[in-house]
């Protein structure tokens, strides 16, 4: 809610020191949580799902954001729709949580019936003078960017999503995510604030000590290091790695695969970063042995050596590889609970047990998400402790956390908090 007076939240925002983590109240307080929902999950673009969540006409799925419930569906003309899950009669929910298949949207309360476009087609006992035309379901602004569905609940969606759209449409085209298949999906509820979930994902300072499965395919040098702490041998290895990165990126770009880092992290409304990363070891995919999990590659991909195109925003992170993709969506549930919904995507025609092994496909990120969930719970317990004092971010490994905290403060202030 827009504030017209100096609020306790504004005092917390003012207390944040540059280069340090946020004051405890910004992670723990209920009024801050409600403000976060208002600013970051109603007024900003958020990732809510995928086109391939609803592959056929009549497929629908419900996504709940705070008290707001959305229906993501595919209509009879195979067009994607996003609508509020609220009947225009007396407000009943139309669909229950989860996935379903519908021919029409029928309210279970009084059987008001809507076409899959949202138009009201049947409203019994409303009399001759009743005008159905003005009782269609409320539509939600959305964009499909490379098959990822971004929605905004505001009547004035931020316009700078155009940069994300321009950058990622080209980068995601070869993967054809819109026509991929969800091979597996899991929900993990982390016992921590959503900002701690995002902060944890935006650094790999903790990776070598906590993510043995992920580190098979991740190159730790990519996520920052203190050059003064390196031995001459390690410094030579780092220089060799970055020379390889420069050469590999140039070659990928020359081959028609955009790869350089693009980021819109501060002094902006829509927050994102993308880059094509080298995969370590066998170099093919984020699997237990870094080889491809699926023999049928995504979309029009013909190569396994194109690394990991990562993309993250303020409520999602994604990894797109030749053989599969991993999409994670973050939804706040309360000040101290956060839903992390992860989906593993393969080619639409890939057959489990023939083209891919499900355990190999999902092993790394199931393990990593469980490990991160424990770390987030530890972090939240710590910031609740009266002894907590905001600590300094590493200038080598946590610069993106500093940018996120700066962006968070700026966006809260922009909306009057």
From TrEMBL:
Q: Which UniProt keywords apply?
A: 2Fe-2S, Iron, Iron-sulfur, Metal-binding, Oxidoreductase
Which Gene3D superfamilies does this one have? Answer: Naphthalene 1,2-dioxygenase Alpha Subunit, Chain A, domain 1, Rieske [2Fe-2S] iron-sulphur domain
Query: What InterPro entries does the annotation carry?
Result: Rieske_2Fe-2S, Rieske_2Fe-2S_sf, Ring_hydroxy_dOase_asu_C_dom, Rng_hydr_dOase-A
Rieske domain ranges (all copies): 45-151
Which prosthetic group or cofactor does it need?
Fe cation
Q: Name one Pfam family in it.
A: Rieske
What GO MF terms are annotated?
Answer: 2 iron, 2 sulfur cluster binding; iron ion binding; oxidoreductase activity
The entry's protein name is (Fe-S)-binding protein
Lineage summary: Bacteria, Pseudomonadati, Pseudomonadota, Alphaproteobacteria, Hyphomicrobiales
């Amino acid at each position: 809610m827009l504030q017209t007076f100096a609020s306790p939240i504004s005092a917390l925002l003012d207390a944040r020191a540059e280069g340090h983590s946020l004051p405890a109240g910004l992670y723990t307080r209920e009024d801050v949580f409600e403000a976060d929902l208002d600013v970051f999950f109603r007024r900003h673009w958020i990732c809510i799902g995928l086109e391939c969540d609803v592959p056929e006409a009549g497929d629908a799925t419900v996504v709940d954001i705070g008290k707001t419930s959305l229906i993501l569906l595919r209509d009879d003309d195979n067009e994607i729709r996003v609508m509020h899950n609220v009947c225009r009669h007396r407000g009943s929910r139309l669909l229950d949580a989860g996935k379903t298949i519908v021919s029409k949207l029928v309210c279970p309360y009084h059987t008001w019936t809507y076409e899959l476009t949202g138009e009201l087609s049947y409203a019994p006992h409303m009399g001759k003078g009743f005008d159905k035309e003005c009782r269609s379901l409320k539509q939600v602004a959305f964009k499909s960017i490379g098959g990822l569905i971004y929605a905004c609940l505001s009547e004035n969606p931020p316009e700078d999503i155009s940069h994300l759209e321009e950058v990622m449409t080209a980068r995601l085209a070869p993967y054809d995510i819109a026509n991929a298949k969800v091979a597996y999906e899991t929900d993990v509820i982390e016992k921590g604030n959503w900002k701690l979930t995002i902060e944890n994902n935006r650094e790999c300072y903790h990776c070598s000590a906590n993510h043995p499965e992920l580190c098979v395919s991740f190159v730790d040098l990519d996520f920052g290091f203190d050059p003064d702490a390196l031995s001459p041998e390690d410094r030579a290895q780092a220089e060799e790695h970055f020379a390889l990165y420069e050469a590999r990126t140039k070659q990928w770009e020359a081959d028609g695969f955009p790869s350089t880092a693009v980021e819109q992290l501060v002094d902006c409304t829509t927050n994102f970063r993308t880059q094509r990363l080298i995969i370590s070891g066998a170099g093919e995919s984020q699997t237990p042995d870094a080889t491809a999990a699926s023999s049928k590659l995504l979309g029009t991909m013909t190569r396994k050596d194109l690394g990991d195109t990562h993309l993250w925003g303020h409520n999602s992170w994604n990894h797109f590889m030749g053989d599969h993709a991993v999409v994670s969506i973050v939804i706040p549930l309360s000040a101290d609970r956060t839903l992390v919904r992860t989906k593993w995507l393969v080619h639409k025609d890939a057959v489990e047990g023939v083209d891919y092994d499900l355990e190999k496909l999902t092993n790394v990120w199931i393990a990593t998400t469980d490990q991160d969930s424990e770390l987030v719970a530890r972090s939240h317990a710590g910031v609740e402790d009266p002894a907590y004092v905001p600590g300094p971010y590493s200038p080598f490994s946590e610069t993106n956390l500093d940018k996120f905290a700066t962006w968070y403060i700026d966006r809260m202030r922009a909306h009057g908090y």
